[in-house]
Write a structure and sequence with these properties.
mainly alpha, two-stranded antiparallel ribbon, two-stranded antiparallel sheet, 11 helices, 5% strand
Length: 343
């Protein structure tokens, strides 16, 4: 039986139309799949960066507690001296008070750290180590008159106390065996990290239609939403990275000052055993004592910085204060010259 030429043309036309429809639907699905793959790549990058930076941050929190406890050595020296100076001036720098009230503050801090340890706040999982690493000033400054400071996850702090003071009066909350989960939640909250989900959950959240049934217009609209999620996550990863770099840089400055400070404190301790009267110190010894006080003050300033500031819904690095403290540190103990010949 002969086939009418018109029928052949019609069938051929339907075949082409069907292929184009299949290709369009396939392309639509691929557009979305590619967008989901980009989100997944960003999620993997987030997990990698977050783990690395969180370890740095938590370790810096532990380091701060250890360092602040060492500060008590200066107060002990002061108590063994007669006629110690109450005002320190060192090489044209701004004079600082270093008398009995300041030494009492140091003793109070070391006592607060002891209480903190007894209440088991200084362990991974309470969120305190991450908070302390990032918010040194907020966690240690005294609350002003008629004020109550509320920070989620920590006891409310009232007038005249710091958050650290208050934590030393109540037991730490229960936390998981893997305390880094809680520390990571604190870090994410501070830096405004968006909720991270797997790609299936993301697709289900944004679309209730099977991926193979999406039109080209629907696919592009969905792609834009997924790409926006990827962009927000990438921005958060950038913030986490910048915080990690900042913590590493500040810790390097602190360690540089700490090494010199330890040496000076040791030398002054031996001196005070022989000559407790400050007035009998020779000029070089007086300068060493003044230098040690300035080193401790600058180290304390560096470690009590709030590294991150909130600007509405945004968080930014406290760059001005950070750079000012780093400049003071470099004036006291200059950075090594990278071009200096090796010894």
């Amino acid at each position: 039986m002969a086939v009418h030429p018109g029928a052949v043309i019609a069938v051929a036309g339907l075949a082409v139309a069907g292929f184009r429809l299949y290709t369009a639907l396939s392309n639509s699905a691929q557009i979305v799949r590619s967008s989901l793959e980009r989100y997944n790549d960003e999620k993997i990058r987030y997990y990698t960066v977050n783990k690395q930076v969180l370890e740095k941050v938590v370790d810096y929190g532990k380091f701060k507690l250890e360092l602040w406890d060492e500060f008590g050595a200066l107060a002990q020296l002061y108590s063994r001296m007669t006629n110690p100076p109450g005002l320190i001036s060192y090489k044209g720098m701004e004079s600082v008070h270093a008398g009995r009230p300041q030494m009492d503050d140091i003793r109070n801090m070391t006592a607060a750290l002891k209480a903190l340890h007894e209440q088991q706040w200084d362990v991974v999982g309470t969120g305190m180590l991450t908070s302390l690493a990032i918010y040194g000033k907020t966690m240690t400054q005294k609350v002003e008159k008629d004020q109550v400071l509320h920070i989620e996850g920590f006891p409310d702090t009232e007038e005249g106390d710091s958050v650290l003071d208050t934590m030393g009066t109540v037991p730490a909350p229960h936390h998981s065996d893997n305390g880094m989960i809680e520390e990571g939640a604190v870090l994410n909250g501070i830096l405004g990290v968006p909720v991270v989900v797997d790609t299936d959950a993301l697709y289900a959240e944004l679309c209730d239609k099977p991926i193979t049934e999406l039109t080209k217009e629907e696919a592009f609209a969905l792609k834009d939403q997924i790409d926006w999620r990827s962009l927000k996550l990438a921005d958060a990863v950038g913030r986490i990275n910048r915080l990690g770099d900042t913590v590493e840089s500040i810790r390097s400055d602190v360690e540089r000052l700490r090494d010199v400070w330890r040496s000076k404190i040791e030398g002054i301790g031996l001196l005070v055993q022989r000559t407790p009267d400050y007035n009998e110190f020779i000029l070089a010894d007086k300068q060493d004592y003044q230098f040690a006080v300035m080193l401790q003050r600058t180290t304390r300033l560096l470690t009590r910085l709030d590294l991150v500031l909130k600007r509405g819904n945004m968080c930014v690095l406290n760059s001005m204060a950070i750079n000012d403290c780093k400049r003071q540190a470099a004036e006291l103990v200059p950075l090594p010259d990278p071009n200096a010949p090796e010894r």
